[in-house]
Amino acid sequence: MGISLALHVVSIILWVGGMFFAHMILRPAAVAELEPPFRLKLWRHVFNRFFPWVWVAIIVTPLTGTLLVAPFGGFSHAPLYVNIMTTIGSLMIAIFLYVYFVPFSGLKKYLDEQDIPAAAGQLNKIRTLVGVNIVLGIITVAIATIGKYYLI
Question: Following DSSP, what letter does each residue of 72-132 receive, concatenated?
Fold first, then answer.
């Protein structure tokens, strides 16, 4: 149980923390210092390094979460806050899958074609959806820490 909880929390920290860093720290610095073609290439490299970690997180988190729910007798017997976390986490995974297979694929395609405006449009879609996932991730962490006290 302890190992499952540790893996669960670490995978969420890496995913949500990575998104927060990219969106709130790296993005403004890149905008301030780099022209769009270089900024877009930077983001391609950043995503190529970050997204494999997200894939690990979206596999590890549900698996360990399921193990952590087992003592309750499954999701139908789990407290409300656990089911809320599960629902939000599932939405976050769906958003990531969309980002990965649609705008990220478009970003790579348009960069290969050197269509900078189209690539920038794809990056903007990614930025917006990552912003949504950051908010959902923070809400989920808040529910995880206070849920059993307020949302039994």
Answer: GTSGGGS-HHHHHHHHHHHHHHHHHHHHHHTHHHHHHHHHHTT-HHHHHHHHHHHHHHHHH
Number of domains composing the chain: 1
- Domain extent, residue 90, equals 2-150
Per-residue three-class SS string for 99-113: HHHCHHHHHHHHHHC
pLDDT in tens, 38-56: 999 999 999 999 999 999 9
Q: Given the structure tokens 């499952």, which residue do they identify?
A: 4
pTM of the model: 0.95
- Give dist(CA 62, CA 56) in Å, integer: 10
What do you get for the CA distance between the two ends of the chain, in Å? 21
